[in-house]
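Quick question: who can interpret this fold?

. . .
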Amino acid sequence: MDDAERAGLRERTRRAVRAELAELALRLFVERGYEETTVDDIAVAAGLSKRSFFRYFPSKEDVVFGDVEELAGRVAEAVRARPAEEPPWAVLRAVLREWGERIQSAQGDAAVLRLIESSPALRARLNQRRDAMRDRVAIALCERPDSGLDAFTADLLTGCAAVALDAANREWLRCDGAADRTDLIDRAFDVMAPAS
């Protein structure tokens, strides 16, 4: 086995342990409550030291939000890759239709979303992460060929798109996941579509 293969194996092992640790922590958060569950509790349940926990996650909040930052970069790339002639609102709609499920999955299932809604610390972190994602998408909108968008307009459009996605996700939660999330995203974008 050469160095590249060993490095690849280490990275796959790290991802697997990280995913297992996140699953365990989320289960504890849902069962006991986020504030009531400590990093020590998670480490003990996983058979790790507290120090080992922090090798995988910089903070307890980061367990809940997984790889949202990596996802933000991929969403921004999807925005840049849309056809140049496509209007910005149509770009956002197409990308969020395509990525909406993955964005939601990065934030967890319905139980985790309810956990986030019930915890002020998690809501604050979620808003911070959403703002960072929105900023990256707004920059990507401006960077599209011949976009002609200024920062204000790009920020406004991505903010509206984020509200549309949030409304679709809240409706999905209200109906316990019975509704089709893509249909809800379409409905939200239709309601908020800019006048021609």
About this structure: The domain at 3-57 is CATH 1.10.10.60 (Arc Repressor Mutant, subunit A). The mean pLDDT is 86. The two ends are 60 Å apart (CA to CA).
